[in-house]
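re: the backbone from monday

yeah here it is again, tokenized this time
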């Protein structure tokens, strides 16, 4: 059998976590990623599940994610260390049919466990799978300018989205549905997980005010690209704050949406 540590899934997560650390988004043990892997791919590395141990989830997982496999970053682990030692910093888990526990199949070899945000990830996976069965990635990180922007604006997703769309022509093209926004909440709790999952019914991006952002996608590249575009645009907004002369006109944003046949978040930009 092939070794799971040599799988493209481990390589992808190892590469992207190091990239995110180098971007300055994931200080210390900040940030977490979970990757839904279809069982047919898991079977290329494991003929059957060899359960190392069970880990309580701390909530009852939705039926849509029960029995599914997730590669997830560990609690207290540093993104900068994943590539050098993935078997300590990552774990492959299977959600039990009861919805209360996860079976550790591979990884966390130092006795660790998944990120404290894993319940929030599973809730977001469940919400996205119900609207997009091809969703595979949930990514949480702490991009600097996105956090700055959230601190300077009211917790209103239409205002937040408009500021981004008006700062960079790429923004409306990459996330025409806009960005969900949550007020400052206690992270690592089921409450913030539930609030995030509720936003994920309509958005692929959710900003946690004073904390960071959640992004989802079919692939690592898609989820990262969403967050990367928000962060670049937030940087433009913050660097030009109070000095803008050439703001993107509403008609240009509308024109971009028409050009790419995009369904824009309503109530942000209106045709005159």
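seq for it, each position gets an aa:
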């Amino acid at each position: 059998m092939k070794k799971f540590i040599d799988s493209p899934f481990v390589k992808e997560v190892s590469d992207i976590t190091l990239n995110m650390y180098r971007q300055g988004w994931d200080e210390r043990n900040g940030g977490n990623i979970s990757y839904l892997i279809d069982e047919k791919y898991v079977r290329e590395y494991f003929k059957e599940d060899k359960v190392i141990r069970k880990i309580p989830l701390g909530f009852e997982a939705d039926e849509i994610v029960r029995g599914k496999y997730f590669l997830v970053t560990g609690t207290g682990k540093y993104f900068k260390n994943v590539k050098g030692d993935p078997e300590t910093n990552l774990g492959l888990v299977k959600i039990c049919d009861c919805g209360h526990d996860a079976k550790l199949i591979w990884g966390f070899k130092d006795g660790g466990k998944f990120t404290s945000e894993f319940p929030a990830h599973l809730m977001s996976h469940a919400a996205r799978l119900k609207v997009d069965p091809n969703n595979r990635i949930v990514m949480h990180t702490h991009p600097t300018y996105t956090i700055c922007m959230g601190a300077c604006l009211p917790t209103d997703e239409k205002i937040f989205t408009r500021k981004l769309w008006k700062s960079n022509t790429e923004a409306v093209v990459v996330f025409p549905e806009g960005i969900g926004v949550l007020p400052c909440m206690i992270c690592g709790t089921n409450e913030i997980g539930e609030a995030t999952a509720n936003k994920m019914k309509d958005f692929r991006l959710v900003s946690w005010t004073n904390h960071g952002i959640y992004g989802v996608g079919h692939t690592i590249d898609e989820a990262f690209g969403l967050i990367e575009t928000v962060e670049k645009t937030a940087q433009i907004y913050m660097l030009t704050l109070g000095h803008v002369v050439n703001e993107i006109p509403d008609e240009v944003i509308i024109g971009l949406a028409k050009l790419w046949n995009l369904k824009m978040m309503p109530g942000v930009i209106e045709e005159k």
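The longest strand covers residues 101-107. Residues 152-265 form a domain with the L-fuculose-1-phosphate Aldolase fold (CATH 3.40.225.10).
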